[in-house]
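Work Package 3 committed the consortium to producing structural models of liganded targets before the mid-term review. Because experimental data for this complex are still outstanding, the team generated a predictive model from sequence and the ligand definition alone, so that downstream docking and mutagenesis planning could proceed in parallel. The input record is reproduced below exactly as it was submitted to the modelling pipeline, together with the SMILES string for adenosine-5'-triphosphate.
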Amino acid sequence: MEKSANFLFGGTNFNKKKFAPDFAKFKNRTEDDDSNKKVSFFEDEAEPEQEKEKVVSSKKRKRKSSKSEPVEGFDVFKSSKKAKTEKENTKNEILENPQKELNRRMERDALSRKQYNIHVSGNNIPPPLKSFAELSSRYGCQGYILRNLAELGFKEPTPIQRQAIPVLLSGRECFACAPTGSGKTIAFICPMLIKLQRPSTDGIRAVILSPVRELAAQTAREGKKLIKGSKFHIRLMTKTLLKTADFSKLRCDVLISTPMRLKRAIKDKKIDLSKVEYLVLDESDKLFEQSLLKQIDWVVKACSNPSIIRSLFSATLPDSVEELARSIMHDAVRVIIGRKNTASETVKQKLVFAGTEEGKLLALRQSFAESLNPPVLIFLQSKERAKELYDELKCENIRVGVIHSDLPPGEREKAVDRFRAGETWVLIATDVIARGMDFKGINFVINYDFPDSASAYIHRIGRSGRAGRSGEAITFYTEEDVPFLRNIANTMTSSGCEVPSWIMSLKKKKWRKHRPRRDSISTLPKAD
Ligand SMILES: Nc1ncnc2c1ncn2[C@@H]1O[C@H](COP(=O)(O)OP(=O)(O)OP(=O)(O)O)[C@@H](O)[C@H]1O
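The resulting structure, written out as tokens with the ligand in place, is given here.
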């Protein structure tokens, strides 16, 4: 646990020098001092503000009721006088002993973080949200957002939303690691909309980067659900938009894109990102991989607004990416939910020795025969192998689809839509959709081929067990995979799964892209 986070739990070794300016706010705090009206110690903690807000409105109410009779059975005067005295006492208490007040609040926040397994580090971190209602009381968020959150059935914020939203609303940069399926999308879209306040014709003010187009499309869809009832424009950078749009005239508040497409638009000088106030890198560790780094660099440089707020989100955040994040971000807040780089605890995980490729196909057919519990996602290590398995299964009476990067874009989209709509029950895939894709109620993920890294394992199985639902994952392994078992064994045990002791006794092997050459899956007679 970071030292500063320990300090939050301690609450005793409070460093007055370090927080002197904040102390000052309390010292000269007087009831009518306007300079304090806007800013309390906790920038966005509106408790005294709220009380002040209520005091102001009750004063207004008092003015109104001094002319008219008190409301039947409810004497506005008395309650406001009593409430006022109480508030006076609280305020005097705060003035007399800001330290005690400070500690009280910090302990309260530390308890709330402990309850939701929120670990933070950084300076002056705002308290976590207690509820979505606080978005309005603390931040004056527009009504349509609360209505849409309720319409989506979200009763209360998830842990990552509780902490990342206040951090971003307080104008801080942030890198966050939270389990798969824990609501990171809302955690970055919601504060963005609140801070942008209203639609504008000033051009693009927020950018969200996703590593693959399917995830970008999904994020755009989720964002559009949240802006319902407003006049915001959220745009997905499609091939057509890239080719045909005149971005200088296009109404676009939030642009969602893959790095490749956005870099193309920047390079062709078709787009102006100088007014971007928010840049979100979703699945950030994937975006920082060597293959995408150059494109990310183009985007980060094009977003030249000096007061830009950047944030990184992922279920896996290797130390190398953290270091990189710290190097490009300013005074960033680190938010970790649970333990970093662990699989979701809602997914029951199993390892199955399949011996050979024939053994795998047999085991798969057997599990389907016993209990095909769709929807099922099956991951393989390459598009060739995905095609082979698809050819094997498509002749059987299970509705199977396939998605990989060789498919034309339209086909990729159709494969995802058919799976979402339940037209296909089994989707055979490569890692192109291992991250971020949110299919409701995936019961089963099958790693037909062993994942090539611990993070690939976490993201693949994280397609199930989302939003608190339970899920299941089976990972087939053969002799070639045995040396790598230990690497995912830690991920399994840290998310509460049993692993045979012989596997735990294996030596950990340094991960390199583990994609061994495997025998062909196909049992169909080869065409001569
Ligand atoms: N506050 C909430 N309450 C209930 N469900 C929520 C809440 N916020 C988001 N969800 C739902 O949780 C599911 C997962 O959300 P999301 O896709 O944002 O997860 P994620 O953390 O980004 O996952 P991944 O790491 O796989 O990308 C979605 O179906 C979303 O609608």
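Reviewers should note the following from the model. Residues 1-14, 22-79 have pLDDT under 50 and may be disordered. These observations will guide the Year 2 experiments.
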